[in-house]
């Protein structure tokens, strides 16, 4: 073996094994990569966003830790074949994602939390990496999307049972019922596709009309079950920069029971991972968030495990982008 090959081999071993004291991180990933390499993606958590008056967001704030704990089973398998991805998570063997930990958010410090989330998102993007946010309830999505303002237009692919277009609820305009309404007001948001819609939620006819006036494309869960993932992906322009926002209640409660508003008939795990992979091939994933896991309602850790696998699939799609 020549010197260059030996160096590559040493770096690979170091990248996969240097997880000392990182057992609490997602997949045991390091906080920084060795040899000064820049990561393709950076994970961070935000337990609290904009909590409604009189509400308690503590349980949602436990979600990131639950997801990280569920990922431990795969932490020692980074070089193993992943059938969801058609190969190991990191195809060249070099770890390309880091977990930078949680932001110091605090319940009811709504403006402060939004500032923290937006600033961290901007900082990750400034490094040339893809931010991956672990919520928290759906309110953390608003400052996350705001953090993309300086990089050019983005599209949003939302996986959710609900459209989240309330202008305000209990006087709060930045709560978990409003992220897509606030996103529609951001000048850098070029369009959105909302997938998995079903049942009944906070949306009234006025919110449906407002979303349609903006140009949002609705793809109900029933439509996706009947027509496959192309019913959603065809609305995304080829080559577009896309942020994926995944509300756990977008999935069927048979595989994701740990949510606060379960609705039968949601996406399967396979459909969700196919959407992520298909999007990575059609467009460019520039951001990903997973929100609304509610640990007190989980059953046997199934929801946290499913959430962890969804994040792994997102990382896999991101590192495979050209």
TrEMBL record:
Gene3D superfamilies, A to Z: Ureohydrolase domain (3.40.800.10)
Keywords, in A-Z order: Hydrolase, Metal-binding
InterPro entries: Ureohydrolase, Ureohydrolase_dom_sf
GO biological process assignments: putrescine biosynthetic process from arginine, via agmatine
Any Pfam family matching the protein: Arginase
GO molecular function: agmatinase activity; metal ion binding
Domain of life: Bacteria
Entry similarity comment: Belongs to the arginase family.
Designated name of the protein: Agmatinase
């Amino acid at each position: 073996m020549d010197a260059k090959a030996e160096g590559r081999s040493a770096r690979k071993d170091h990248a996969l094994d240097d997880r000392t004291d990182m057992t609490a991180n997602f997949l045991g990933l390091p906080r920084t990569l060795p040899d000064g390499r820049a990561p393709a993606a950076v994970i961070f958590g935000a337990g609290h966003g904009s909590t409604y008056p009189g509400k308690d967001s503590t349980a949602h704030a436990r979600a990131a830790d639950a997801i990280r704990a569920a990922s431990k089973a795969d932490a020692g398998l980074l070089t193993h074949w992943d059938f969801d991805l058609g190969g190991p998570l990191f195809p060249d063997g070099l770890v390309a994602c880091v977990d930078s930990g949680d932001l110091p958010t605090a319940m009811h410090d709504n403006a402060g939390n939004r500032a923290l989330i937006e600033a961290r998102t901007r900082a990750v993007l400034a490094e040339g990496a893809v931010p991956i946010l672990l919520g928290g309830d759906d309110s953390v999505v608003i400052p996350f999307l705001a953090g993309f303002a300086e990089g050019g237009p983005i599209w949003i692919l939302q996986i959710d049972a609900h459209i989240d277009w309330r202008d305000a609820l209990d006087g709060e305009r930045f709560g978990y019922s409003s992220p897509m309404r606030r996103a529609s007001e951001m000048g850098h948001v070029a369009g959105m596709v909302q997938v998995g819609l079903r049942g009944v939620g906070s949306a009234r006819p006025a919110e449906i009309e407002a979303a349609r006036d903006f140009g949002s494309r609705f793809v109900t869960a029933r439509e996706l079950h009947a027509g496959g993932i192309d019913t959603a992906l065809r609305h995304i322009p080829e080559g577009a920069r896309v942020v994926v926002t995944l509300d756990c209640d977008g999935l069927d409660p048979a595989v994701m029971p740990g949510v606060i508003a379960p609705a039968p008939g949601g996406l399967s795990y396979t459909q969700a991972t196919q959407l992520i992979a298909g999007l990575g091939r059609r467009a460019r994933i520039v951001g990903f968030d997973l929100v609304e896991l509610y640990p007190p309602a989980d059953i046997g850790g199934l929801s946290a495990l499913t959430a962890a696998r969804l994040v792994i699939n997102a990382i896999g799609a991101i590192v495979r982008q050209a």
